[in-house]
Amino acid sequence: MKEFTIINCSLVIVSPWEVRKGVKVHVSEGVIDGVGDYESGDILDCEGGVLMPGLVNSHTHTPMSLLRGYKDDLDLHDWLKAMWEKEEKMSKQEMNIGSEISVIEMISSGTTSFVDMYFNPEGVKELSEKYKVRAFAGETFMDSRENPEAVAKRQRSLSPSRYFRPIVNVHSLYTASLDSVRTAYEISKEQDTWVHIHLSETREEVFQIKKRTGKFPIQLLHDSGLIDRIQAVHVGWVTNQELQYLKNATHCPTSNMKLATAGAFPFKEMYTKGTNVTLGTDGAASNNSLDMFREMKTAVLVQRHSYWDLWVKASHVLQASTINGYKLVGVYGGEIKEGMVADMVILDPRKARPLSQERVISNVVYNVTGDAVRKVIVDGNVVYDDEVKERFKTRLDQLYEEGGFNG
Ligand SMILES: [Zn+2]
Q: How far is the centre of ligand 1, averaged over its atoms, from the C-alpha of 281 (Å)?
């Protein structure tokens, strides 16, 4: 459908601060071009559902759906060793199978864009075009796994496509040298993108980096002139002084708790200092779900639990998963507003009850899960509905069979 109007929505969550009733949303050429009375083109019937912006999963490792449930009870550094052992033997084909499983799961639970760190960006690119979902992925600098020159060469050959854009991944400062981060930074300039890195995740990491360089991780990247293109993921162990340097930071609350990394992601401090705070599930081996609705709820809860403070609210985590996510990936979207990309989700109204303008954002963050998603629209295309759901079920069965992980 090139031009269509979404009608019969019970409520439209226009943004984390505004819910409208009785409005139609007009879409043309993949862009929202009106919210109000105007109706033109084909009709997409919302059937009383709740319309909201699509969600951005700002940090994941898509092939890790194949490692879901494997080594659930190790802390991060022991867990990583176990993962690397498996990952060393994982073929490109297996990675692509894992990525496809994750892409299907993410779309089905309302994710319209995702940021991926792994070793199969070309596979992810193909999947993003096949499923029409926005993907941001790249090669990953991890010196312990591969020579950085080889990684740089492949990264430089990655090109964007309609739904795919390259990013440059660095696993972490404890698995890649500062020189590798520099190379990643240079390539990110050439490709007009950013550097996605696990940063200040554990005490052990902070201790190692401080011992090696005399500086805390974020301070080190700042003093090396590398911080401005960084998307820092986790940021659980950070000094107050370092906070001011971060332009983009991603909170993965479930993964942090599950891997017992402790620390605390300073959501309120970063938000108020102007950091673009986003939210991610992390991979399916450390979450183990890729459902961004669950992640939003967990994010509020862990903040309140860690800080004994009610400041972080449902609207903040919805903002982190919509507007801020789109800001991170450089796409004008995240609200249901004229001129923004038509990336939207329709929820089953029965799952968001009691349905009222005042409570719907609360219900979406604290009670809805990905199971409530009925339709997903990306770039003005309906990429998920009842019919697609059936196809996805069959495809998932095939993929698990092919992956050899079927029990
Ligand atoms: Zn991660």
A: 8
